[in-house]
Amino acid sequence: MYARRVTAFRAQGLAKRYGSVVALGGVDLEVAEGELVGLLGPNGAGKSTLVKIACGLVRPSAGTAEVAGAPAGSAAARAALGYLAELFRFPGWYTADELLALHQRLAGSDGGEPERAELLELVGLAEAKARKVEAMSKGMQQRLGIAQALVGRPRLLFLDEPTSALDPLGRRTVRELLEELRRRGVSVLLNSHLLSEVELVCDRVVILSRGVVVSAGRTEELARPRGVEVDTDSGTRLFEAARREDAPGIVRDLVAAGDQVYGVRVLETTLEEIYLEAVEGETS
Amino acid sequence: MVVAGYAVSESIRRRVFPVVLVLTASFLALYGFGVYKAYQSVDSSAVESIGEGAFVDQRVLFSATLFGLSIFAVLFLGTVLAIFLTHAVVRGDAERGLLQPLVVRPVGRAALLAGRCGAAVLVCAVYVVAVYALALLITHWITGWWPDRIVAPALELAAAVAVIVVISLFGSIVLSAIANGIAIFMVFGAGLVAGLLGQIGEALDSDSLNTIADVASWVLPFEALYQDALNRITADTVGFTKVALSLGPFGGAQPAGLWLAPYVVAYVAALAAVGLWAFNRKDL
User: Fold this and answer.
1) Rounded mean pLDDT, B116-131
2) Residues of B with Cβ-Cβ distance to A85 under 8 angstroms
3) Is the Cβ pair A89, B105 closer than 8 Å?
4) Which tens digits make up the pLDDT trace of B192-228?
5) Region A77-89 average pLDDT
6) B281: which chain A residues are within 8 Å (Cβ-Cβ)?
7) Which residues in B lie closer than 8 A to residue A57 (C-beta atoms)?
8) A60 touching B (Cβ < 8 Å)
9) CB of B173 within 8 A of CB of B278?
10) Chain A residue numbers touching B279 (CB-CB < 8 A)
11) Is A1's pLDDT higher than 60?
12) Each residue of A66-104: b (16+ CB within 10 Å) or e?
């Protein structure tokens, strides 16, 4: 029997204009159930606008957006998502636990204290349960923001620059959290400038530039071969036209010619190179 | 209810609340001291003759005038509190990133606005009634005088502040926090000036000034409520005492008539409906 698969998020022809400024110029994008998609692009590319439309914070000028099969902005869509804004703030007088309790009530979650404890543990804030928001560092507030977004077990998570204020340890915590979410089947649309981070955790990347998708796919699909690099006793040699399947032959030829081979690397374009090529050097 | 609870908690835990309490205590202490010192110069049993068969009850004249002053102060303090609690509710909170985490929850924008409005009205109304009651008790304790109406003026002051809350909430949708705060103070000032013009118009028998005051009272009904509250405290006072009162700054108030209550309800409902429509269309 055929069961129609509901995508976690779908945007079709999504456009947004602010007067004469085109923030989004007709974007098509899908995030499958359990998929972790990285949204990349220079400042002003339309990433945050796209996420805000998905969350119902911004009305599109044209096109449609659906969250878990429901129109973006509807109560059903909002009930299915979790969101951490790029620029967010929580009332300073709340403790971490009180803030999560508030969002449990707003989200209609019946998870109670166990859910709050689990979420604080998940973002590494179990010890800060009773600490007021105003006494937290920006990094701690960002991790609390992620915990807040996870209240009510959302099916889809929109994270807009969730690691911008985090130190390397905090970033690793978030990376592990994202991997845990993937294991749980939660879909994530991760908007980030940290390409290395996106490359490490995302199943797929979508690159936006000037409001349109300029590149999309799995990183290994987007990557292009850049040759094979071999470390020999006479130095490092680059075979630019070679591909992965050429590596054994290259090594065989070098050994036959009397060279000592110490290492072989198959080179591909990095996500950074893919990104820079896609946005054509645009910075903002 | 969740949003209202959040907003009440926010109202009380914001730093402005202790400031308002300190200001209120200072006002009541100064008011009590002022009434006490001034009343020492009044012969409380005197009924002063101002001509053949014409008398003015000095105690009533003194007490009603000073209590009228306290009513103005109560309205002013209630307005300050209302503005501080509501001037940044939509655009101000959105610019600071406080609003977005709440709006994306399933409760929805209408419930959010209603909850914030309900909480602000509750806090301000309780505050206004409490300060009114304390000022009344202080006046009675020193002078032994009771106003002709006690409950209705308190309710009208509470309603006046509720109107200001709704106007301020409406303003917060379209104006930034500081601009809205300034605008509402100016609106409040404009209402009071219009009321004074009306009193002058009565004294001078000027149709133009009376028309200006009438129009202002309909456009800004908190002024009509304030005037009606003032009028009610000496509603049963007659003769030259009433005439003498009407010559003072707080005695020339006019009764608003039966249409005021339904008009205020319709005014608030219309403003709330337009505000909600604008809020629903607003990009955050």
Assistant:
1) 93
2) 97, 100-101
3) no
4) 888 888 878 877 788 888 888 888 888 889 988 998 8
5) 91
6) 59
7) 100, 103-104, 283-284
8) no
9) yes
10) none
11) no
12) bbbebebbeeebbbbbbbbbbebbbbebbbbbbbbbbbb
CB–CB of A58 and B98 under 8 A?
Answer: no
Contacts of B261 (CB under 8 A, 6+ apart): none
Residue that is written with structure tokens 């294991």 in the block = A183
Concatenate the DSSP letters of all residues of A80-121 into one string. HEEEE-SS----TTSBHHHHHHHHHHHHT---HHHHHHHHHH
Instruction: Give the Cα separation of A136 and A153 in Å (integer).
Output: 25
Q: pTM of the full predicted structure? A: 0.82
| Contact (CB<8Å) B104/A148 | no
- The pLDDT of residue A3 is 44
Q: How far is B113 from chain A (nearest CA, A)?
A: 14
Contact call for residues A230 and A236 (beta carbons, < 8 A): yes
Integer Cα distance of A57 and A87 in angstroms: 13
A55 close contact with B: CB closer than 8 A: yes
Return the pLDDT at A29: 93
For β-strands A81-84 and A70-71, DSSP reports them as: unpaired
B78, burial (CB in 10 Å: exposed 0-12, middle 13-18, buried 19+): buried
A97-101, B69-73, B254-258: range with lowest mean pLDDT: B254-258
Residue of chain B whose alpha carbon sits nearest to that of A99: B6
Quote the percentage of chain B above a pLDDT of 70.
93
Q: Exposed, middle or buried by CB within 10 Å (0-12, 13-18, 19+), for A2?
A: exposed
How deeply is B275 buried, as exposed, middle or buried, from its count of CB atoms within 10 A (0-12, 13-18, 19+)? buried
Q: Which two tokens stand for residue B12?
A: 């009380």
Reported ipTM: the value is 0.79
A277 versus A125: the higher-pLDDT residue is: A125
Query: With an 8 Å Cβ cutoff, are A91 and B98 in contact?
Result: yes
Cα atoms in the 13 Å half-sphere on the side-chain side of A129: 13
Q: Which pLDDT score is estimated for B234?
A: 84
Question: How many degrees, rounded to 5, is the angle at CA A21 between CA A19 and CA A22?
Answer: 115
Per CB-CB distance under 8 Å, the chain B contacts of A90 are: 98, 101
Which residue among B10, B103, B281 places its CB closest to the CB of A91? B10
**What pLDDT is recorded for position A2?**
42
